[in-house]
Write a structure and sequence with these properties.
- The protein has 22 helices and 14 strands.
- The protein is of the alpha/beta class and about 675 residues long.
- The strands form three sheets. It has a six-stranded mixed beta sheet, with helices on both faces.
- The radius of gyration is 33 Å and the shape is elongated.
Length: about 675
């Protein structure tokens, strides 16, 4: 159950709050609509629930606030705005990347593409999708982790009637399995047609919290509320006069002494009661939210209500129990108890059966879906929460407020390394960067070799004295800057731009992947420079190095340091340009300061430090390790190395400080 208590936004002092003391709830098994005019505070209310907006109040998701849930993406599925993904990324890559982020198998993404009817668009770029297809991709992303609660902001905005019907059928299927669905809309008819409960707000305040049937009677259709001790007699009188005048009048007996009359007015009803001598105690026009809500009449409930869904589930369960249980299997079989095994000739349960009975869907792609335009399968009306894979174990048990799930999840941390790898290689940016770096580096090395008087290590690195950094280091810094820069520009991990998880696992994955990319980029650049020099000049500019370990360590340290500086700076300042600027600031600003500090003789030399470090170790290391330690220290005391170390320490502290201050937990 979702419970929002006292939600209040805190804008600037001179402005009134967009949401003011808003309290309501969205019950499991029901679709709840948050209704209001544009600017009424619907989106702000959702952002307050997700802790994306500063304000007061608290929202409980099954009894816990969002920041106390270990993995919020598994508890709440969110759709705010457009699809949060890079436009050049494919649909399949986007969903598989998000699968790794929430800790579900990659096959879950393929299965959801079948459910929402976008299996034919798996290789389509996100930037080329229509509005309807974007909504399907966004819903698939929201349902990846099998959440109990769905929060959707204007999910049907800009969609044609057919797409709207499909979308609300999917939401209805999620709710029928015990999930809670809350969506915002400014269309009262849409809210009454597709929701079980309607929460109306105006100017950020709660106006009404009604059942859909009550809402339809009091908000969509003006009525006359009549209270009389002779309700049956007055109803008969009004019916006869309406038939004689050939007018359409609907009369509903709410209780023994109350009538609701639609299609008439107080004057006509009062005159009819006076002519026939019927005593009337109350006669009032009720439009909008005037008057107290009338208890719903059982016959007035639609088939989409909770009563109809409960009857459908009982009927489906009875049908499932009536079938022979010859093919029952446990979790390893992927079929629920009482279902026929495909080996015995019975078809696997389709999506509609899985929705009604809670069975695991193990059908082939396209099962239960009718063809749609452009070769796309028409999605089923089932929610993805009714889907599971063979061998998966139920992670939750059905019950009040509990959603039966068949999605296998990992325990403990998610898969940040897999997520980061798919994020990096989901676009052509690394390949284009590597190609540009290799070409520019080879050209610069040829120019330096022709000019002469360039040391061999700078020649192979294509690093002139006038350049602050070689092309490979700039490319590594660019890739590092995009690690967080793309997260803030195309926020795939959060529901709002500017909010990215500050988990150590994600930071470690980004640092590790960027370090590996930097080393590969540096190796490619050196290999390209060496090949270009041998091809053009032969072996003239090159000679066998006397000591290769120290230059190699310096080269690797430079590349990794630039990549990490870009990662941390883009994470602190939330922009890729800030990461690139931080990388360039190291040789331009920090290195001169370090040189001024280190120049001149030292009063206390550090000679013999390797032997002293050997004495501090628990176990003796071989004498060959002294050369490695001295090489590493020689790299560290260089101005560029010292500047990189200092810059990384400052950026890491700034990253930790901004994470603790912002308390970002999403």
């Amino acid at each position: 159950m979702l419970q929002a208590i006292g939600l209040t936004s805190t804008p600037r002092r001179e402005l009134p709050p967009l949401v003011n003391d808003l309290t309501f709830e969205a019950r499991p098994g029901c679709v709840t609509a948050l209704l209001g005019e544009p600017g009424a505070g619907k989106t702000t209310a959702l952002r307050l629930m997700l802790e994306l907006e500063p304000g007061r109040g608290v929202t409980y998701f099954r009894g816990r606030p969002l920041h106390r849930i270990p993995h919020p993406g598994r508890e709440v599925g969110v759709l705010l705005g457009d699809v949060p993904g890079h436009p050049s990324r494919t649909v399949r890559n986007q969903l598989r990347m998000l699968s790794a982020a929430v800790g579900v198998p990659a096959s879950r993404a393929d299965l959801l593409m079948e459910v929402v009817g976008i299996s034919g668009l798996r290789d389509q770029r996100l930037g080329s999708l229509s509005a309807g297809m974007e909504r399907r991709v966004a819903l698939a992303a929201a349902l990846l982790a099998d959440p109990c609660t769905l929060l959707l902001d204007e999910p049907a905005a800009g969609l044609p009637a057919r797409e709207r019907a499909w979308l609300y059928a999917l939401l209805r299927g999620h709710a029928s399995l015990g999930g809670a669905v809350l969506f915002t809309t400014d269309d009262a008819k849409e809210a009454a047609r597709h929701a079980d409960r309607v929460v109306s707000i105006a100017a950020g305040r709660l106006v009404a919290d009604q059942d859909a049937a009550d809402f339809a009677r009091t908000r969509l259709r003006p009525r006359v509320a009549v209270r009389t001790p002779h309700a049956a007699r007055l109803a008969d009188v009004l019916g006869r006069e309406a038939r004689s005048a050939q007018r359409v009048v609907e009369i509903v007996e709410e209780s023994g002494s109350r009538l609701s009359v639609y299609g008439s007015n107080c004057a006509e009803i009062g005159e009819a009661a006076f002519r026939h001598g019927v005593l009337v105690h109350q006669l009032a026009d009720e439009t909008g939210d005037a008057g107290a809500p009338v208890p719903p009449v059982p016959q007035a409930r639609t088939r989409g209500g909770a009563t109809a869904r409960a009857e459908a589930r009982v009927e489906a369960s009875a049908q499932a129990q009536a079938r022979p249980a010859a093919g029952s299997a446990g979790p390893a079989g992927g079929l629920p108890a009482g279902a026929e095994s495909p080996a015995h000739g019975e078809p696997r349960p389709d999506l509609r059966t899985a929705l009604a009975t809670g069975a695991a869907y193990t059908g082939s792609p396209g099962t239960g879906a009718a063809p749609a335009p452009a070769g796309l399968p028409e999605p089923s009306e089932a929610s993805s929460d009714s889907l599971s894979e063979p061998g998966d174990e139920r992670s939750r048990h059905a019950g009040p407020g509990r959603l039966a799930s068949g999605v296998r999840r990992v325990g403990g941390p998610l898969w940040p390394l897999r997520y980061e790898t798919r994020r990096v290689f989901g676009t052509a940016t690394p390949l284009l960067t590597a190609a540009v770096v290799v070409i520019v580096s080879a050209l610069i090395s040829l120019v330096l070799a022709r000019a002469g008087h360039t040391p061999q290590h700078r020649l192979l690195a294509a690093w002139p004295e006038l350049f602050p950094l070689p092309p490979a280091a700039l490319g590594a810094g660019l890739l590092g800057s995009l690690a967080f820069g793309e997260e803030y520009r195309y926020p795939a991990l959060a529901a709002d731009r500017g909010t990215v998880p500050r988990r150590m696992g994600l930071l470690a994955a980004k640092l590790g992947v960027c370090a590996a990319l930097a080393l590969v980029l540096g190796a490619l650049a050196v290999a390209a420079d060496l090949a270009a020099l041998r091809l053009v000049f032969g072996a003239g500019p090159l000679r066998a190095p006397v000591e290769w370990m120290s230059p190699a360590a310096s080269w690797a340290g430079l590349l990794i340091g630039c990549a990490w500086a870009g990662v941390l700076a883009s994470g602190v300042f939330r922009a890729a340009s800030a990461g690139v600027a931080a990388v360039l600031a190291v040789p331009v600003m920090v290195v001169p300061l370090v040189r001024k500090t280190l120049e001149g003789p030292s009063a206390y030399p550090v000679t013999g430090i390797a032997s002293r470090l050997r004495g501090l170790s628990w176990s003796p290391w071989p004498p060959e390790a002294d050369r490695i330690v001295l090489g590493a220290l020689r790299v560290m005391i260089q101005p560029v190395g010292t500047a990189l170390v200092l810059s990384l320490m400052v950026l890491l502290c700034a990253y930790a400080f901004t994470g603790l201050r912002g308390r970002v937990r999403w």
